[in-house]
Each structure stands twice: as structure tokens, then as C-alpha cells.
Write a structure and sequence with these properties.
- It is a single chain.
- The protein is 23% helix and 34% strand.
- The chain is an alpha+beta fold and 213 residues long.
- The protein is globular and about 55 Å long.
Length: 213
């Protein structure tokens, strides 16, 4: 079952800051969850639910078009059982919060350089390889209620060099508030990295969508 300790206010704080990081509309309350009208090429709309509710199932029955996504702080089985069969479960992610972390960033490999760009509440970090290619990157956004990490990516050609960790430290250094929670949603591979940095899993984060035919 869904972990009852997942605070809806924390989920909303993460989703709001994520919208800031991606320059998307702010989430709005919708049938027990939060809706973001993304209106992008790959996604029309997403709903995020902190826990199971009747509203999640109602949306699943009402929506039949592709490019809509339902997200749940809960297990794949919980989400699957709440939806009609035309919704397809996607790989599980994890809703995470920072715990006690190291105060010092590890050194970069020789020849790699960090670039940071700040645009209002958004921070964009890039790590440039010795051959001038993009080796790793990530974003963060800060609101009054959360500091959120987003789109942390390391090029496969530059893996296992600690670059993901370096991106996280560079982003974290941009925070202004010492009290706002640090939050992210991680893939399974990301979860393993962030756990070594002191992050904890608050809940699995299940996703369902209707595939285009």
C-alpha cells in the first residue's frame, strides 16, 4: 500500500518547483491530485496523486487519448489496479528527499570543468569534458517551499567518473534557504546514486499512460 507518511503538501511543493524548473504552468488541484497542463509535443497533461483516491480512477475512466500521464506516490500494482486496462504502467521512479549529506564535493577528473548559469530561481549546471562535449548536466529550482533537482543526466561516454555527484553538489550550492526540503524524483539508477549521497526514498512513484497506436 501507499506509504501514508507522504505529505500531500510536500508533493505539491516538489511539483510546483518542478514546473518552475521546466517553465511549465503551476499545478492546480484536481479530484484529489494535482494537474499540470504541460501541452508539450510528448505530453498534453499529467496528474500527480500523493495517494490513491476515487478521483484517480475517475480520470482513468474519463481519459482515453494518448499523451496523458497519471502519477502516483505508490506502487505499480496500486496504480494498475485503479485504472482501466488501456493504461500502461511505465518504469517505476522514486520520490526522494535529501537527508544528511557530505559537505564537500568530490574533485572532478582532470580536464573536466563545471559551468553554472542562474536564471531567477532556476540553476542550470553543465560539466564540460576535455574534448568540449557535454558530459553531464542538471537543473534545480527553488521556491519558498522546496529546492528541487531535475533532469540530472550523465552521458554514457562519461559514466562512472562521479559526474552525477558533481552536478548534484553544484546545484545544491545554489540554494538560498537552509530550511526548504531538497526533493527529487529519481529513476532506479538515480536512486542508487542519491542513496549513497544521503537521500532517502519517501515513496515509489508509479506512472501510467495510454500508448499511441
Amino acid at each position: 500500500m501507499t506509504d501514508p507518511s507522504v505529505d500531500p503538501a510536500l508533493v505539491l511543493a516538489w511539483l510546483t518547483a518542478r514546473s518552475v524548473a521546466r517553465e511549465l504552468p503551476a499545478p492546480i488541484h484536481d479530484r484529489g491530485g494535482f494537474r499540470v497542463d504541460t501541452n508539450s509535443e510528448k505530453e498534453t497533461r499529467r496528474w500527480v496523486f500523493p495517494s490513491l483516491s476515487d478521483g484517480l480512477g475517475a480520470i482513468g475512466r474519463d481519459v482515453s487519448a494518448p499523451r496523458h500521464f497519471l502519477k502516483l506516490c505508490g506502487s505499480d500494482d496500486e496504480l494498475r489496479n485503479a485504472l482501466p486496462s488501456n493504461w500502461q504502467i511505465q518504469p517505476t521512479s522514486y520520490f526522494m528527499r535529501a537527508g544528511v549529506t557530505s559537505a564537500h564535493a568530490p574533485p572532478l577528473p582532470d580536464g573536466y570543468q563545471v559551468e553554472c548559469r542562474h536564471t531567477g530561481p532556476i540553476t542550470h549546471v553543465r560539466i564540460i569534458a576535455p574534448d568540449s562535449s557535454l558530459a553531464a548536466s542538471g537543473y534545480a529550482a527553488e521556491t519558498a517551499d522546496a529546492f528541487v533537482y531535475d533532469r540530472i543526466v550523465t552521458s554514457p561516454a562519461h559514466g562512472r567518473k562521479g559526474l552525477g555527484t558533481a552536478v548534484m553538489f553544484a546545484l545544491g550550492a545554489a540554494r538560498r534557504s537552509q530550511t526548504a526540503p531538497h526533493l527529487l524524483v529519481a529513476t532506479d539508477a538515480g536512486r542508487k546514486l542519491y542513496t549513497t549521497l544521503g537521500w532517502t526514498v519517501l515513496s515509489p512513484y508509479a506512472t501510467a499512460t495510454i500508448l499511441e497506436v
